[in-house]
Write a structure and sequence with these properties.
Number of domains: 1
Number of helices: 15
Strand content: under 5%
Radius of gyration: 22 Å
Structural class: mainly alpha
Distance between the termini: 40 Å
Low-confidence stretches: none
Mean pLDDT: 81
């Protein structure tokens, strides 16, 4: 169902919108959690390390796709907020074309340079083969990930966060079943887990297509929506790329930062890799409520930006920031008191040293969840406003700080020093994003008031 987010109680709309997103994000994590639990429990620590060693690369690839599709959907949401329904359909066709071209280029480059990338990541020789096969299969299936994320982003931009959820739940359960079948019964090992991920994403994308065709008339594309006027549509394409590319680069910069940390982590051997793999999966789950609230805020801001409701945006961002602050405190407490128990879910209780390393990481990083929670708020608010440059600058700053901290602290304090790289980067990025948001929202409000006074003066 399409929802207009430009009217009604802002906080209530964002909360209702974010709940399906949260559930969907939890199930989407099942793609990777199922890999970790099934691989770790059935194939052992080395197989778990093989998946974990390339996990940041997997996330980097997904970040590029998610950044593109979310950025393109901002334009779609702005068109919807302005009641330009022809523009909504044109935005969809442009997004399909641009994302397909960029995904093809990215797939070819990744497959060609993968051996060199894994070498730079310091992937240990004893797990290299499984790691290489796993990531190559995932890359081969990038088009399925692209189309699911594009469709889901467009549907959410129109105010519907429930429809993608239903298909994602089904696909997540299917992923678990397929992973078990491929690993336990077909004996495909680590590559079987990757095949399960790709097939599950493909099915979720197909389900989205069928449902949109049947239930979303506004998204029924017409022949003229695919006919482009060279001059006008070059401008329209740039409007999408102007938001999508910086968001993609921004997301990829975050992924590169994690990739560098993983590369440093890989030098400490399979046990440390396995510990970080389990800990990072737990952290991703713990921060999902904050992530979901941020994504919901982006859709809300985009529609209200199109409607010119800037004060409404300001109120919603303030309330969302307070809610994410409370969520960060709750999740920090969970990591402190139950972190070790959560790690045991992934690797069992037979490896106390690995459990201790993972829990130590969770304890340190959770103390800084407040700053991470504010990144999700201000970054998504700026993206909804169409201001992608500031999040990009913040991401580059985060990358530089994270990389320097990881390398320097790892040399000085061994793997324990890596624990502080992320938190230091979060503090840096959150400050930049907050300043960027408040500067821009103040300017938009002042400009709107000046326009209003000008119109009253003319009358």
């Amino acid at each position: 169902m399409i929802n207009d987010l430009t009217t009604g109680n802002p906080l209530k709309l964002i909360l209702l919108f974010s709940i399906p997103l949260l559930i969907g994000n939890i199930f989407q994590q099942f793609y990777n959690i199922a890999d970790i639990v099934i691989v770790g429990r059935t194939l052992g620590i080395q197989a778990l390390a093989a998946v974990g060693a390339t996990a940041p690369l997997f996330f980097l690839i997904m970040f590029v796709i998610v950044g593109l599709t979310n950025g393109f959907a901002v334009v779609t949401g702005q068109r919807f907020g302005a009641k330009d329904y022809d523009g909504v359909r044109r935005s969809v066709t442009m997004s399909v074309i641009l994302s397909s071209i960029l995904t093809l280029i990215f797939t070819v480059l990744c497959m060609y340079f993968m051996p060199a990338i894994l070498g730079l990541m310091n992937v240990p020789a004893d797990i290299y083969k499984d790691a290489y096969l796993y990531i190559q299969i995932v890359i081969f299936g990038l088009f399925t990930a692209n189309f699911y994320n594009l469709l889901a982003s467009i549907i959410r931009a129109l105010g519907d966060s429930k429809t993608p959820l239903y298909f994602l739940i089904f696909a997540s359960i299917l992923n678990i079943i397929l992973a078990l079948v491929f690993i336990i019964y077909f004996h495909w090992g680590v590559p079987g887990s990757a095949v399960a991920v790709v097939l599950s994403q493909a099915i979720s994308a197909l389900l989205c297509v069928f449902y949109v065709k049947k239930n979303f008339p506004i998204l029924h594309l017409k022949k003229q929506d695919w006919i482009f006027n060279k001059k006008e549509d070059l401008t329209f394409a740039w409007e999408h790329l102007n938001v999508g590319l910086p968001m993609s680069v921004q997301f990829s910069v975050l992924g590169i930062g994690v990739l560098i940390i993983q590369s440093v982590c890989n030098t400490f051997g399979s046990d440390v890799i396995a510990a970080f793999t389990a800990a990072l999966r737990i952290e991703q789950i713990a921060t999902l409520p904050m992530v979901s609230f941020g994504v919901a805020l982006a859709a809300f801001v985009a529609q209200n930006f199109g409607a010119g409701s800037f004060r409404r945006i300001k109120v919603s961002v303030k309330k969302s920031s307070i809610i994410n602050l409370h969520l960060s405190v709750v999740m920090a407490c969970v990591m402190h008191f139950w972190g070790s128990d959560l790690v045991k879910i992934f690797i069992g209780g037979q490896n106390p040293e690995i459990i201790k390393i993972a829990h130590d990481y969770l304890f340190v990083s959770s103390l800084f969840y407040f700053f991470l929670s504010q990144i999700f708020i201000f970054r998504n608010a700026l993206q909804g406003l169409g201001k992608a440059l500031i999040p990009l600058i913040a991401s580059v700053g985060e990358l530089l700080v994270r990389s320097f901290a990881a390398i320097y602290l790892a040399v000085k304090y061994s793997y324990f020093g890596i624990f502080y790289a992320g938190p230091i980067a979060w503090v840096t990025a959150s400050v930049v994003l907050a300043l960027g948001y408040y500067t821009n929202i103040h300017r938009f409000i002042m400009e709107a008031q000046a326009d209003k006074r000008g119109k009253l003066h003319k009358t």
